[in-house]
Amino acid sequence: MLLNEACLTGIPDTLAVAVSGGGDSMALLHMLAARYDLRAVTVDHGLRPKGADEAAMVAGFCQTFGVPHVTLKWHDWDRKGNLQSEARRARLRLIGDWARDQGITHIALGHTLDDQAETVLLRLLRGSGVDGLSGMAERRQDEGLTWIRPLLHARRADLRAYLRDRGIDWVDDPSNDDPHYARVRARKAIAALGLEVEGLADTATRLRRARAVLELDTVALADAVLEITDAGEVQITRAAFDLAPDELRLRLMAGALRWVSGAPYRPRFDSLVALLEDPDGRTLHGCVIRLRSGKISVRREVSKVPPPASLENGVWDNRWIAEAESGAPGATHIGALGEEGLQQCGNWRETGHAREVLLASPALRKNGVLVAAPLAGMANGWACRLKEGKKGLNNLLMSG
Fold first, then answer.
1. CA distances from 59 to 172, 322, 327 (A)
2. CB count, 10 Å around CB of 225?
3. Each residue of 225-284: pLDDT tens digit?
4. How does DSSP classify residue 231?
5. CATH fold of 209-302+391-399, please?
6. Distance (Å, whole) CA 76 – CA 96
7. Considering the entire predicted model, what is its pTM?
8. Distance CA 34, CA 341 (A)
């Protein structure tokens, strides 16, 4: 059985599937089409002349099977960073935004056992720890969506045999044979060295079990030593924190930094280690870390917050939501309070929040004029609350 039935347990009737036109995703599309109210999505990265043709091929196949299909295009690559990494992030972002707009909650991806083995080998070569070597999960939560990998136990060759038996075409991306890419080199190394794909994947399974225990222990540590203020500052009791094992301390600090900054990934390991050795006054990952009254405080760095955004956008700086009472003065934008705004809040000291925290706190404005700064003592009929408090942080700790 190529599909992992356990991975599909509890999936709603409407399901999206990401289809590139390659053998893995085409096989997944065909397998799921008869079982779900399926929606197919293809991302054209605009990096190869044939990308549009491949998307059109997928669209034609979907039309034959009565599966609605959409092609999303990536336009905003700045030609910086690792191409494959940036393309992957863009792909997930584009698909995620589309799914939310469509009211779709679950998205199927075509990763295979071979992909899992390549991932483990690549991460081993990069010196990854338990989380990295645990590989790809069959299910993961991200931004309110559930991403599933029903083919993670299937071999790539078996999926192509499945397609050939049914007369279904697929497209081989030429970059899959380009040794310029690390994943291609890893694939060739597995073959050249005679490494067992199943063995590498089994390693990931065992390490995922270890990771689950570490994540639960980190959440328990957070419950014991960590508090979140209504101004979004994370405060960690240092004496109890320092008694915990280093691995749990590193995980908790990484989660706190991600939660405060909204960053999708952890800081670099070496930076985290240096931070724990000497936390006071450091900046890392869009945060300022202070040591005050026996507590390590993780605060948003005001110079790293995003520019003011329209209130219609809903959430600002990945975590703040503004709400107005009936009769409150109108405002159009939400952004950081800043120095000029704080000077207009005469009683900000009475809030008990540090000045540094309030500078990065949310404020409401209209035509550039300050209307309200609820966390700095200038509510004026407005309130600002965290989109997700401790529960959101715990979710980060449980998802790496």
1. 17, 41, 51
2. 21
3. 999 999 999 999 999 999 999 999 999 999 999 999 999 889 999 999 999 999 999 999
4. T
5. Chorismate Mutase Domain, subunit A (1.20.59)
6. 16
7. 0.87
8. 58
